What does this fold into?
Amino acid sequence: MNNIPVVKVGIVAVSRDCFPASLAETRRKALVAAYEKKYGAADIYECPITIIESEIDMVNALADIKKNECNALCVYLGNFGPEISETLLAKHFDGPKMFCAAAEESQNDLIDGRGDAYCGMLNASYNLALRNTKAYIPSYPVGDAEDCADMIHDFLPIARVVIGLSELKIISFGPRPMNFLACNAPIKQLYNLGVEIEENSELDLFEAYHKHDNDPRIAEVVEDMAKELGKGNTNPSMLPKLAQYEITLLDWIEEHKGYRKNVAIAGKCWPAFQTQFHFVPCYVNSRLTGRGIPVSCEVDIYGALSEYIGTCISQDAVTLLDINNSVPKDMYAESIEGKYDYKHTDTFMGFHCGNTCSMKVCNPHLDFQRIMARNLPREFTDGTIEGDLMPGNITFFRLQSTADSQLRAYAAQGEILPVATRSFGGIGVFAIKEMGRFYRYFLLEKNFPHHGAVMFGHYAKPLYDALKYIGVEPSEIGYNRPAGVLYPSENPWD
It folds into this structure.
């Protein structure tokens, strides 16, 4: 995926002048060796400069990591550390940063070998606050070389989100469909997050599409689509139209992303789209999303933003689904009860018309949009990619701006069950512990829209830390609380 940043963490070990600098240097080398042994050397750079109570040393270290193209920073307290210069380093580094600290190695070396970094982290944290400088601090930030190597590796998805958003442009086409107020939210918070947005009319897109009539690249894209679909290529005559649309979007991205490196799209897909284009864009959206270019449905700008965050974290395709319908009681009784550890109210169906990447769908095949086809000729609604979603772990989440421009988010881990949906679209039977209570007392209570982004795996831990880093208040990040842990508005006698 070339639409998300590649992170390179500069590791700078710091030392206070009343502690042996060799202690920090030795521990830094051990940390780097541990990281390279477990994760390889591609993600990190070892800065050879050890800062000792000197702002000049800080400047030299900053220049060194910039010269070596580091876009993220780890300040490693090999000993107590100089609180002024180490936090100045973080302040002046333009990118995501983290702090962690060295644990003591042995009970047999607690005189000259004692570094007191456990204490130094307190001063570092206090000084970061004084300088209004944000940094990621792991849940338990003090450890040996292997522990700190794991902390740095855990920092990578957080850093990808922070860098990715700073380089992101969201391109939208058309206003939201009528009666979809839920997909509309103030864009002010996009700018606060460092994201650019380009809003266009669907008429602009329609014009650009027809400028690609008879584009010589269409045949090549049709061939690629047919190869991807295999037996699911149930309507080969549709592919040239879809290929032309895909080329249109990709050309638009290249011509309009400007100085930004990364792009997501909030696309229009109804009501006028299918009557003018004579197809629906779902399959094309799924293909771009599979390449790391998220395309949300129904001009859902914060849906596209959420998908992009999920792409940065998981380095995998994501999807956008409606929290759509309940699981019938007879389906629950036949296929779930007694087989899986979920109550009926833990389950629901996640659905969209057919926008999920084919590699995340069982038996994917081209089809038509059945809801639209109730009011339109079927041939206008061809172009979905359909099938039950593949079973496995998921993280359901969303970042949203409220109507009064406050950032709010949620994350819930669960799974897609291997249960036949007996329905249409891109759809799956989802199970999330205590979903019923989460749905009522957070999603409804906090006015979230019906769209949620889905990562295919359990990623709530890095997602939570990334959301905090970019500025979402912890009190505004919801999760599915366990049984017995009440939501603020939940009736305790219910």
The radius of gyration is 25 Å. The chain has two domains: 9-165, 167-479.
